[in-house]
Amino acid sequence: MSRIALTGASGLIGTALSSALSARGDEVLHLVRRPARTAAEITWKPGSDLDPAALADVDAVVHLAGAGVGDKRWTPQYRKLIKSSRVEGTRTIAAALARLQRPVRLVSGSAVGFYGSDRAEEVLTEDSAAGSGFLAEVVQAWEAQTERATRAGHPVALARTGIVLSPQGGAMAKVLPLSKLGLGGPLGSGEQYWPWITLPDEVAALMHLIDNPSITGPVNLVAPAPERQRELMRLLGEALGRPAVLPAPAFALRAALGEFAEDILGSQRVTPPVLLASGFTFTHPDPQSAMRWLADAARATA
Questions:
Q1: Which of 54, 99, 168, 263 has the most CB atoms lying inside 10 A of its own CB?
Q2: Please, what is the Cα angle at 297 between 227 and 195, to 5 degrees?
């Protein structure tokens, strides 16, 4: 049994990860931004000092907290929140760990936004250069905050997560209702690559990183078969028994989503060589099995 501290436990990934860790017998401590109500909670405030004693007995910290990227339009105020919630929270966690006298595993949430919003056909690995654009700048500043923990001797993995497939949240929660009506066709041209991963594989990959502290640095949490958005929607429509042919024009997406539309319309052909080399096995390694799982999960939660 391990003792694991978790931020962002109320989010899509955090909720599923907390349940999976508890199910296998680990003790999970939730870092919450309100007064702690139980012994399984630790009060913290991103951007403020966190007493390292709160983390003194944990084996690992999984840091997933941050404002949702696709939750709201990117007003100047919300852009500031997207960045500050990640940078300040990570700085707080890293500073607390740096004051401990023993190594603690840190799995710090990150995103494939590191590679920029549109890299066309380029195959991207953990060795690929950073891209440009707002999210790329956010991710670089976000990841840089872990350096203090690394310098203090803590093994740090940067979990660069792609598009998480789940009917319960994230991008697909918005796409599924359209797909069920046969309206989940291409977004823009549909030729852009989407770096996807199912929620079960995302959780399993995070647990794999917790259990293998020798894996450090950036790790792409995406399936090994990136696919064009058009094909993903076709396979989802097929799994749902609904055709997916009507496109969502690029101008309509920009009107609805603002600047975030550029990241939806962009192409990121991201692959997970570090994860594969470490022996991780995907439950849903290909788009066909992933979309069948997503359709079944959507029916189960309907």
A1: 263
A2: 20
Evaluate if residue 29 carries a pLDDT over 80.
Answer: yes
pLDDT of residue 1: 84
d(C-alpha 52, C-alpha 99), whole Å: 6
211 to 4, 93, 159, 206, 246: CA distances (angstroms)? 11, 19, 14, 9, 44
Pseudo-torsion of CA 144, 161, 213, 91, nearest 10°?
Answer: 30
* Nearest CA-CA partner of 55 in 10, 4, 109, 2: 4
Residue 251's nearest CA partner among 167, 188, 159 is 188
- Helix, coil or strand: residue 75: coil
Beta carbons within 8 Å of 292's beta carbon, 6+ residues apart: 239
What's the average model confidence in pLDDT over 211-226? 97
- List, for residues 38-59, the tens digit of each pLDDT value: 999 999 999 999 999 999 999 9
The amino acid present at 154, given as its one-letter code, is: H
Phi, psi for 253 (deg, rounded to 5): -65, -40
C-alpha span between 46 and 34 (Å, rounded): 12
Report the distance separating Cα 60 and Cα 154, nearest Å.
10
Percent of the chain with pLDDT over 90: 73
> How far apart (Å, rounded) are the C-alpha atoms in residues 245 and 179?
10
